[in-house]
Amino acid sequence: MKGKILVIEDNEQNLYLVRFILEKNDYEVFAVMDGESGIEMAASLRPDMILLDIQLPLMDGYTVARNLRRNPDLADTPIVAVTSYAMTGDREKTIEAGCNGYIEKPINPDIFMAQVEQHFTMRDQRRKGQ
Ligand code: MN
Asked: What range defines the domain where residue 77 resides?
């Protein structure tokens, strides 16, 4: 197992696809469909990465990201927004909220794993730089 990835995603089809790709690539997947559950599970699970949908019911992904970043245990954890917004302003908004980056929907299965693993590489570089 390469690591634990928490997926916060309310769309079942997206979740199915993300889970399929990640599990095929030897990651352990934990999934929740709303932000509050995501914040709770992140605290207990301490995943190696969090994939965060931005359009979520009740609490949007920006709010979820800000909450996750308040947990010192998750300071080093890559949080990657996964969303269909394509505009630069929204991309900046995800970074401001505490995300490390952005993967655009619809997910492209051919490059999704590389996009995810790039964030592990960047995390390792940040650790080395400390
Ligand atoms: Mn959604």
From this structure: 4-129
